[in-house]
Specification:
The chain has helices spanning 34-51, 54-61, 65-68, 74-127. By secondary structure, the chain is mostly helical.
């Protein structure tokens, strides 16, 4: 089994120095992509939307049940299970709505962080003459 060492930011520069990749040429090596975060946010929003009508559909599905089960103990259990599912559905819907916003916030924060890091490297490079 091979041992994996810690990777440092300076290790990402390759032979040509930090920031220009393994073969030089000045290409950026350390980047993030907004795509996965935005797709996940879209998925969370879709789930939030899809869960919206579920409570009404569940209510509609139970409309005739009471009339046919008067006097049965199972009716109380059925009501308890139904309420439990309604709470779970609303909790999941709320979590999906919250998660979508949090995932989009990651994209914004990461963009600001990228610019801050890029700026700090540019300042350091200008002080050392780009070496």
């Amino acid at each position: 089994m091979a041992a994996v060492g810690r990777q440092r930011l300076s290790d990402l520069g390759g032979a040509g120095g930090a920031g220009d990749g393994a073969g030089g040429g000045g290409r950026d090596v350390l980047k993030h992509s907004d795509g996965p975060w935005l797709r996940a946010a879209g998925g969370a929003e879709s789930l939030h939307t899809l869960l919206g009508p579920v409570k009404t559909e569940l209510d509609r599905a139970h409309e005739g049940v009471v009339a046919g089960t008067v006097g049965l103990e199972a009716l109380a259990e059925l009501g308890s299970v139904r309420e439990s599912w309604q709470r779970r559905i609303e909790a999941a819907r709320g979590e999906c709505g919250s998660l979508a916003g949090k995932l989009r916030a990651v994209v914004r924060v990461q963009g600001v962080t990228d610019e801050t890091v890029k700026s700090s490297f540019a300042r350091a490079a200008s002080r050392t003459g780009g070496q």
